[in-house]
Amino acid sequence: MFFTKFGYVIAIIALIFGVLQIAMGIHAINMPAQLNEAGIPMLGNKTSGQTIDSGIYKMLFAVALGILAEISRSVRKKDKAED
Q: Is residue 28 part of a domain?
């Protein structure tokens, strides 16, 4: 039960960070070209494309973890119903 709830919490946090990172990457696209080519310090010296890619990976991780937590919850419910 602990890991199921913990998985949900981590999935939600990862999803929020992924969305924020994508938003920062999209915002960085509108910055002047000199900053965007050299890497933007607020993005950890990554380009806007790399930041958006990283945000997408975080969101995919969050979805996968959320699915695993949901499977865990449904298996637990099934086991309790059989008892």
A: yes
Q: What angle do CA 54, 5, 70 make, to 5 degrees?
A: 75
Which backbone phi and psi does 15 adopt, to 5 degrees? -65, -45
In whole angstroms, what separates CA 69 from the centre of its chain?
Answer: 15
Residues 78 and 3 sit within 8 Å (Cβ to Cβ): no
Residue 42 forms part of a structural domain: yes
Q: What integer pLDDT is reported at residue 50 of this predicted model?
A: 87
Is 83 contained in some domain?
Answer: no
- Binned at pLDDT 50, 70 and 90, residue 77 comes out as confident
Range of the domain at 62: 2-78
pLDDT of 58 reads 96
**b/e string for 66-78 if b means 16 or more Cβ within 10 A?**
beebeebeeeeee
Looking at mean pLDDT, say which of 16-20, 33-37, 70-74 comes out highest. 16-20
